[in-house]
Amino acid sequence: MHLVNELPGVITKPLNRHADSRGWLIELFRDDELPARFEPVMGYLSLTLPGVARGPHEHRDQSDGFAFLSGTFEVTLWENRPGKEHTKMVILAGEENPLFVVVPPGVVHAYRNVGSQDAFVLNFPDRLYAGEGKREPVDEVRHEEIDSEFKL
């Protein structure tokens, strides 16, 4: 995995497509390549329509592990941890640049489908959504008011 120096703890890993006559396979992540203390506990798939953005939001305790494999996404991240400089980073990811991105707590993140077709994103967070049995508060801080400042 590759550490992105602009935002400490954000990691991107280029994903390799192995194709043959049957189709293709992409290895998303391996336990022996994940950062220390990032242990995914659930996974989900989302579909994002063309032109639509998800986020921006951050987590207090949760890290997200996103796999961008289809379509074209503009992934925007910015620093929001106390004592850190408010650095912004934008990555293009998707079918032409498949990536696995680990976003640590305190880094605000959003993505927009900038392609012309519906596109999928896989997420493997290291915390259960709403906790065990969905009985806890959701670990999410919304930042829609920042949207215009960061031009998502």
Describe the structure in your own words.
The protein is an all-beta fold and 152 residues long. The protein has one domain: Sandwich (Jelly Rolls). It has one helix spanning 147-150; strands spanning 2-3, 11-14, 17-20, 23-26, 44-48, 53-58, 64-68, 72-79, 88-94, 99-103, 107-113, 119-123, 141-142. The strands form three sheets. The chain has a six-stranded antiparallel sheet with strand order 1-2-10-7-12-5, with no helix packed on it. The chain has a five-stranded antiparallel sheet with strand order 9-8-11-6-13, with no helix packed on it. A two-stranded antiparallel sheet has the order 3-4. A hairpin with a 2-residue loop joins strand 3 and strand 4 (23-26). It is globular, with a radius of gyration of 15 Å. The chain starts with a strand and ends with a helix. The model has no long low-confidence stretch (mean pLDDT 91).
